[in-house]
Structure formats: structure tokens, C-alpha cells
Design brief:
- The chain is mainly beta.
- The strands form eleven sheets. Strands 14-18-17-16-15 form a five-stranded mixed β-sheet, with no helix packed on it. Strands 25-33-32-29-28 form a five-stranded mixed β-sheet, with no helix packed on it. A four-stranded antiparallel β-sheet has the order 3-36-35-34, with no helix packed on it.
């Protein structure tokens, strides 16, 4: 555990812009020297601002993260009364404010919003695939993009060898190439790989299934996850489902797809976790959460058969070694949730199903750091935790009092509060 203690703050914020001409301001100190504990690899529930709305409990949604915001796209719920619905919603969680905001967008919002795929590329959301209702009766192979500055959606016109309409696929971007792997149409499962060249928006089929006995080909699947290392895409888990039954695939041996050679390699992994002298690996699972930070992949939760999981594992890619993270697990089993990691290394997990009968969904937001961030990042988090009203101070006042512009620019003001921003900090 890494702790910052007695982090002293001394910023002068004028009580009134028309006063304090002689430099008389309010000096903030850290509540009499109380401690704020910055913890690495400790799962905590994010306390949502009391003035903030929140997304409804859901599953099958996707989130992406920057250092300033989380973005939630879509999802599914039965509202507890067997009245199923898809959420044609785009939500933003501003990390500095600890507050949610539903974004009002323009243009053609995606319609297939369960088990779709979403990637954040700069200020652009790329949304691909997904299922409508009832599941398996409609799926998508359209590429939707949303500019997060203008909040305008558009359907991207593509050419070439277009993939079939599927949901539950996994996607990855590398060197201006958008890869989609596997998925299902509700009846048949796939392990085919298609690549979209982003500059030309042309699709290419780079691997089409030939049968399980050929070239180390993995089983077709959906709701798997991916890692990437040394020019290879790693296939992690996934499986098939029928009704309430789910059948996940193991991760003791994993398949890697070599992008240059365009072939599959089956590789055994190792583990640092032993029980009774026996080497242990993550249980087979699908619908788990997954993020990659540097050369480590983290997976969480998931389901296979009647087993629901709440554990968190790390796979170190250079050595393909698994380790279970002791004292880091969800407070409840969860699947069909989603995870995202910020560039600074803070992982967030949101939503999901917590019972084996697909009835109970949550909208809890939790976080943990997967690596030790920079001292500036730790100082910024400490400052926000010590003074939750700090984001209400006008940006220019914060900058004039020494807070770096890069952090001030992370503070987002909900549209409904733009005229109510204060320039003082209340303790």
C-alpha cells in the first residue's frame, strides 16, 4: 500500500472577485493535518456526487476511459419486471467531479446496444457490432463514430470484405487497423478475423475459420477478451451460451494470432498461484472484464456454467505468467460488466449481473490502480479527495493559484450547471 500523509495545501482563493485587492484570500490547509491514503491495487467503490444522476443498472454495455472521463455506451436491462430494454444512451462520468451526466447527442445513434464493442480513439468513439432485441434476431456490422466534442454520431461508409453482422465480438486497434475477432449471430459462433483499414475504411478478411483441427485454430466463441503483445493478438476466455447456460473456455492454454504471419499459435501459460502445491489458473469464463496496461492484462469476474466469479487475475505478457491479486476481488460475483483503464493506470469497472438467472443488475462504479502513477497524478487525486468542492472553482482561479493546466482541463462542467460555477471552495 502506498500512502500520502499530511499532504499540505496552501492555495489562495478570493472570496469575491471584487474584493481581496491587497491579497487577502482564503488559504486552504488540509483539515488540520488529516491523512488521505492513496492506495495501489485496492478496490474501492467510487462515491458519486449527491447532485449527480446515475445510469440505470445494466449489463452488456461498454465503457472507455481517458484521464478525465469515463464514457458508457448502451446496455441492457429487464427492469426487474421482465420488461427488457436497450439503453440508447451515452453517459459521461467526470472523474474530477465524481459525477455522471447523460449526454445529448445528434445523428443516428446505434440501435444494437448489447454486447457491442466500443473503442476510444482520441476524441472519437468507435462503436461496432452488437445485438438488438430479442437477442439473436438482429445484429450489426455497421461502424458508428461519435465525435465527443460535437456529440454528433455518424454511420461510416465502408468497403471491401465486410464482416457478417455479429455481437459479442472483441476488437482491437493497432497501427491504424481496427480488428474484430469472433462473435455470434445468436445461433452460430465465429472465430473469423477482419481488419478495417482506418485511413481507407476498407475491410479485409485476414482469417476465416477452416475447422478446429487445422493450424491450432481456437474454438468459435463470443464474449471473449483480447490482449496484444509483440505483434500478436491474445485470445482470453469467451465461450458459448444457450438460455441461462454458459460455457466458458479455459485460459491455461491460450491462442495467439500472429498479425504478420496470419496464423494461430497455441501456447501454455504459467502461474505464480499454487494451492496445495498445485499450479492454479483462472477458471474458464466468458463475459468477464478485461483491460491492458503496458505489458500486463487484468481480467475480472465472468461466468461459466453455474459458477460466477469475483476474482481478479493479472497476466504478464512477456512471460505469459498468471498471478491472482490477493486481497483484490469484487464484493460480489459479477459478469456482463465492463472495465476500462485510464492512460495513467486507474481501472474502473461498472455495472453487470450478480445472480445466475440474469435478473439482478447493478450500477456500482468501482476502481483500483494497476500501477503506481506519477507523483503529479497522486497529488491531484489527493487534492480532489481532500477538497471535493474544488472542481467548482473557476478554471482561471485554479491556474493562477498553481494547479497545472493539464489537470484543470480535466474538470468538466455539466451543461445544466454552467451558470452556477462558484469561484470559492467550501470546506
Amino acid at each position: 500500500m502506498l500512502i500520502l500523509r499530511k499532504f499540505k495545501l496552501a492555495f489562495a482563493f478570493p472570496m469575491n472577485p471584487d474584493e481581496d485587492n491587497e491579497g487577502v484570500g482564503r488559504v486552504l490547509e488540509d483539515n488540520g493535518g488529516s491523512d488521505y491514503n492513496f492506495k495501489v491495487r485496492s478496490l474501492t467503490t467510487v462515491k458519486i456526487s449527491k447532485t449527480s444522476d446515475s445510469p440505470s443498472p445494466r449489463s452488456g454495455h461498454r465503457i472507455v476511459a481517458s484521464d478525465s472521463d469515463l464514457i458508457v455506451v448502451g446496455g441492457y436491462s429487464n427492469h426487474g419486471d421482465n420488461s427488457p430494454c436497450l439503453f440508447d444512451e451515452l453517459w459521461k462520468f467526470n472523474i474530477a467531479r465524481n459525477g455522471w451526466e447523460r449526454l445529448v447527442t445528434k445523428g443516428p445513434f446505434p440501435k444494437e446496444l448489447a454486447s457491442h464493442s466500443v473503442i476510444l480513439l482520441g476524441d472519437t468513439l468507435i462503436c461496432y457490432g452488437g445485438s438488438g432485441l430479442p437477442f439473436g434476431t438482429s445484429a450489426s456490422n455497421q461502424v458508428h463514430m461519435c465525435n465527443l466534442k460535437t456529440l454528433v454520431w455518424k454511420i461510416v461508409e465502408t468497403s471491401g470484405e465486410t464482416p457478417p453482422a455479429l455481437y459479442g465480438q472483441a476488437v482491437y486497434i493497432n497501427n491504424n487497423s481496427f480488428y474484430t475477432i469472433g462473435g455470434t449471430d445468436g445461433v452460430n459462433y465465429s472465430i473469423d478475423i477482419y481488419r478495417l483499414d482506418l485511413p481507407t475504411l476498407k475491410w479485409e478478411a485476414i482469417f476465416v475459420s477452416k475447422g478446429l483441427a487445422i493450424d491450432n485454430e481456437p474454438k468459435p466463441r463470443y464474449r471473449h477478451e483480447l490482449g496484444f503483445y509483440d505483434g500478436k493478438i491474445l485470445l482470453l476466455g469467451g465461450g458459448e451460451s444457450s438460455g441461462i447456460a454458459c460455457f466458458g473456455y479455459e485460459m491455461k492454454e491460450i491462442h495467439q494470432f500472429d498479425i504478420e504471419k496470419r496464423n494461430w499459435i497455441k501456447t501454455s501459460t504459467k502461474s505464480e498461484h499454487f494451492v496445495g502445491g498445485v499450479e492454479c489458473f483462472p477458471s474458464p469464463r466468458l463475459a468477464h472484464g478485461c483491460v491492458q496496461s503496458g505489458t500486463d492484462v487484468w481480467i475480472s469476474g465472468g461466468r461459466s456454467h453455474e459458477s460466477l466469479h469475483k476474482d481478479i487475475w493479472k497476466l504478464h505478457l512477456p512471460t505469459l505468467t498468471w498471478s491472482i491479486v490477493k486481497d483484490l476481488a469484487y464484493p460480489f460475483p459479477v459478469y456482463f460488466h465492463t472495465m476500462a483503464v485510464t492512460p495513467s493506470g486507474c481501472t474502473y469497472t461498472f455495472g453487470g449481473i450478480t445472480d445466475p438467472y440474469y435478473k439482478h443488475r447493478v450500477n456500482k462504479l468501482m476502481k483500483f490502480w494497476v500501477k503506481i502513477p506519477t507523483l503529479k497524478e497522486m497529488a491531484w487525486e489527493t487534492l480532489l479527495a481532500s477538497y471535493p468542492n474544488l472542481p467548482n472553482v473557476k478554471s482561471q482561479v485554479l491556474i493562477e493559484n498553481g494547479i497545472p493546466r493539464e489537470f484543470v482541463e480535466r474538470i468538466s462542467t455539466p451543461k445544466t450547471e454552467e451558470d452556477n460555477v462558484e469561484n470559492t471552495v467550501g470546506l
